Amino acid sequence: MAAWDGAPSTDHLGLLFQGNNLRTLGAEALGKLLRQNKSIRSLILEWNSLGAWEEGFSFFCQGLGANNSLQQLDLRNNQINHQGAGELAMALKQNASLQELDLRWNNIGLLGGRALLNCLHSNKTLKRLELAGNNVPSDILKAVEQAVDHNQDRQTILSETQNRTYILSKEVLSLKDEKNKQFLDLMDTIDKQREEIARSSRMSAARVSQLQEALDEQHSIMNSLKAKLQMTEAALALSEQKVHNLGELLNATKQEQTSMAEHHFTELQQQRQEGADREGKLLRDLSAASEKNLLLRNQVDELEKKCKVQQDQLFQVKQDLTNTTAELKLRAVQAEVRGCSFSRCWRQEWLLGLAEMVSAALQVDHMTQQMEASGRSMQDRIQRLEAVRAALEEELSQVKAAALSERGQAEEELIKVRNQARLEEQQRLEHLEEKLRLMTESRDEAQNCCFKQKQMVAEAQAKASQLSLQADGLRRRLEELQQDLNSKDEEKVMEVNKVKVELQEQIGHLQAERAAQDGLREKIAALERQLKALSSNHREALLDKEGEISMLLEKLRVKEANISRMREEEAQRASFLQNAIMAYVQGSPLGTHSSRK
């Protein structure tokens, strides 16, 4: 009972009471539960003692018979005898939901097995019945297995038949729906046909009345067409006048364009001449500067040659001094040798030696005076060369400043010429664009007038064709309705034919005028092409002029580069000369003497 008190609620699909030693009260409680509950699907009561008390087990079997939701029941090892098996057989006859029953390891015996076998003839839902370990003969077990298999086959067949019936019912319902839809569609089509028949009858009656009214309105329509034709003729006359005016305007524009083109050509020639003059002037200036540079170079070369000659002279003087000093040393040595060897004549030789030394000293003084004079002359020459170099540098700076000023003036003049040309071109282009706009507006007005006239002609043609068709239809129907009106119909047909002829003649005139307008359009297109060609030529001339200006600028840049390169070379040469002179001054005896002091 403790197990029963802690049992789960009836909302669960399975209950497990394994090994709880349930007896009479537990069996009665389970019977009540099965009688009232409709949601339990599985009940496991293994290892209990439900079959030991007949009253409690019979109450449990009554609840099982009244239950219609339980599908699996496990009663293994519950001490069920043949009487309990009879009670179970009675419950299985009433139950229609149980599919699996496990009665292994009980005491059912032969009588219980027969009772269960008999109940299977009336129970058609039980698919599995376990009777092992119950002392039931093998033939009864086989019969039970056959009965259970038969129930299983029957359940599968029933499920298949239920599925088929469900599918067939769905198909029948769909067919019924389709037949209903078809019937409704047929009814709708029948109603629509009836409505269309009634509508066509009403339309036919209305058409007959309209035809009768149209016969009366034809005369008024013909009169209105004649008035419209007169209006179109007047409009055509106005359009011809406008076309003539446009032709005159086109001729005037042609003349203006030719005059403008000649004026542009003369201006371009003048500008080219001015550019050529400026270029010649610049070339002459550059040639003069180059000649000055050549003269300066020649002067520098002459000065270099003079310096080289003086250097050679100084070198020769140095060699003479070295030779004389060497001879004096040799003579002194010889004198000493002679004094040692010839002791007798030492006084005479000493006197001669002194005389020679005095003469040598005099010669040395003379040479030093000459060297000092040559050094002073060289310093004077160096100062003169530096003055010449400064003068040359000043002349180069003046030439450079003049070239830069001339270049700036040329660039300013070029900028002014460009700005003037651009302003003039913009003004001319604006004037031409204004004229073109006026011409296009006048052309558009003429085209609109022509288009309106064409529309009026097309409307007249469409109305004439409609009238002809209506007249033919009316004639056919009036021949069937009223034979007396045949003569009147023929007269009306004749009148319509006359109107057609007149309309065709007018259409021919309109087509001729249209051809004339097409010729005028072609002339306008030719004039536009000429304008485009003139503008392209003007643009090409401007591009050529800009190319020439860029070439002149490039030449100026090259010449400036040459001048700068020449200036750098002259600076290098002057530095070389200065270094050579300083080296010569430092290497001369005067330089050494001054350094020793």
TrEMBL record:
UniProt keywords, alphabetically: Coiled coil, Cytoplasm, Cytoskeleton
Top-level taxon in the UniProt lineage: Eukaryota
Principal location listed in the UniProt entry: cytoplasm
Residues in coiled coil: 176-242, 286-320, 375-569
SUPFAM superfamilies, alphabetized: RNI-like
GO cellular component: centrosome; plasma membrane
Listed name of the protein: Leucine rich repeat containing 45
Organism name: Otus sunia
Upper classification of the organism: Eukaryota, Metazoa, Chordata, Craniata, Vertebrata
